[in-house]
């Protein structure tokens, strides 16, 4: 009797957890529909090019750390040079590459070493040299050569050298839409109720896309199955989740691949945390904490639903595992570091909703899922499972998951419509089913491994492995590169 | 009539959605009872014999599975519909635009001037293609872009064409539509073609809380040139965004509006309006407001203070002004401090400027140090060389940057 009582309590805990999770998904979906509708209505007639002739506009530095990128660096920089903005500079930070990244850039863009002065506002590995071009066509290109210190360290070096109001932190291999800066800057100048401290944008998957002169010329659905799974995952994460949290001003993360920040505020909070592998999440949380604890002003983190940045995602099981493992370690690290914010009303919605959401549905989710699985097997073993109830609940979960993913696909088709064709649709629906039995359990395992590595392994700050395969038209055989 | 049909569509979508939610709730209830008495009609639940065998809370789970499955099918069909529809829409749009371009250019650039009868015929031909709202919107947008890109005779002809097709009823309906995008479209058209008769309503829209709407309404009023003294802005009593200020300045400069009541704007209690007035006075080189602008220096509002410094710097032309700028240098924002540095460096009194620039090199932030050293180079090379040995690392770095021939 006593055991059954405890089983009843455990059952209820799992049930309530699942109910909250489903309610949250539905809430996110409704919120993102409202947010996106409002965004598209408000911006339908906006002439972004008019920003180019504005009198009062923040200046921007685009900071892109590069480590062993010799295969693609020239195209990547060309892509950045296509950006449209009135007053901006591009800062490439060569983070102690062991290949010919720096030499290639120097040769192609006719760079010379210059005595550019800068203030050491943030700590970073020593800067060996700063280069600028002799060619006027590239006069807003700056290349920093520094000793290897990792992505966060490279970004800090870039922030030190930058002298502009805002900085756009990007992954150098990302393909940025030419009008991305115009769209990203808009929230900083069109809000009179809140101080905008950062803005993020939607990231799309560039695998198999066609690229010419640094621009995406044809959007293709990826050929690789892992990339296809991630397309679905990104639809849900960006279109249904981040947009929704941004509407509530509860967005906790701006992707490290693409985010615009207020430079002075980032310096005030101490820049990127070099000891974190989730430096993007950690910075946003720290900035938010700073706004609540120090400035105490009404502020917001903006999010642009337009797909402005295209990135390559892992195409192999090994690299994917490594990436997810790192994301998990980064999230745990940030949560533990800022744990005082959890359920703390002093931090507003972040403390009450966003942070607990991260704790319970990001950090603890894989642990709860695995405990649930073991618990279920235990019940099954002792014949304590009502099979009818189990099957009903299983069908409920599966039907909900399919509906949620199908809705994400619909939302993409309705709004941006980047992927087209019957083949894409039929493949996507097949993948939605397959995903539940292959990709999602796999992600859970990666995440569990991340937990294990964080708590028990010495090298918890390891970045792991990332490979670049290049784009369809300019495909080059890239060797695996290992970032520190 | 048109307005009514738009409102009908607006409310019918919302009511249908609420109806759907009510139907789902009703379905959930009906599913859990054996029968229902509805207006003396008894409706039997055929599934009840199965439902009663399961625990009560599983009713809802079963029901949600049904709803989710139904939703999957509906959403799937909607994806197919939207995919097909977008394809068709793109095709139709191309057809429409191609057809309109041909007809519009025939009208605008005739081989020989049309007689009135021929004109009427041409207009009839154009109107033939305008069978639905979408086509009308495409047509008007096309006219807008031709209007924006042309001037002189063709511009007049475009305006004439817009008048002749007589779409005021269409624009009016869109302006009063509950949809934001319709309102914005109407405001754009009214502004571009200077369509009169809607000023009072647009004036009301300038006071709306929706920032996009009020911003567009302000621009439309500017384009209509009815309230070109801009006094309506000082009556707005709401904060303008940097975006608003930029877009207002841009429109005023493009339209060359001259009747602005600068004094009222500069002295407005709303900081953004005051800053706008100062900016406009500077851009329109209205030096007579120099002293009114000077009074705004040191304003507690950062925006007003900055614009006042920038404008005063622009107008400063005598020793008193320069002394005033140097004396108040500490009150200026970083951006205006840089402008002051450039201004003082350019004056003929090299002793004053050299003294000031040396002060900047020794006391200000490193961006200003670099600029000051750069400017000092033109005034006194010997003074600059002393910074080579400076104990202040930033000053030394700045010196090397300035002297780098590659920069």
**Structural class label of chain A:** alpha/beta
Low-confidence stretches of chain A: 472-484
Radius of gyration over C-alpha positions of chain B, nearest whole angstrom: 33 Å
Shape of chain B from CA axes? extended
Order of H and E elements of chain B: HEEHHHHHHHHHHHHHHHHHHHHH
Mean pLDDT of chain B equals 87
Shape of chain A: globular
Q: What's the arrangement of strands in the largest beta sheet of chain B?
A: 1-2
The average pLDDT score of chain A comes to 90
Main β-sheet, spatial strand arrangement of chain A: 3-4-5-2-1-6-11-8-12-7
The amount of beta strand of chain A, in percent, is: 15-25%
Give the total of beta strands of chain A: 14
Instruction: Classify the oligomer.
Output: heterodimer
Biggest interface reads: A-B, 48 and 55 residues
Percent helix range of chain B? over 70%
Number of helical segments with 4 or more residues of chain B? 22
Describe the structure.
The complex is a heterodimer of chains A (484) and B (407). Chain A has 14 helices and 14 strands. In chain A, strand 4 and strand 5 form a beta hairpin. In chain A, helix 11 crosses helix 14. Chain A is globular, with a radius of gyration of 23 Å. Chain B folds into three domains: 162 residues, no CATH class; 87 residues, no CATH class; 92 residues. Chain B has 22 helices and two strands. In chain B, helix 3 packs across helix 5 and helix 14 packs parallel to helix 16. Chain B is extended, with a radius of gyration of 33 Å.
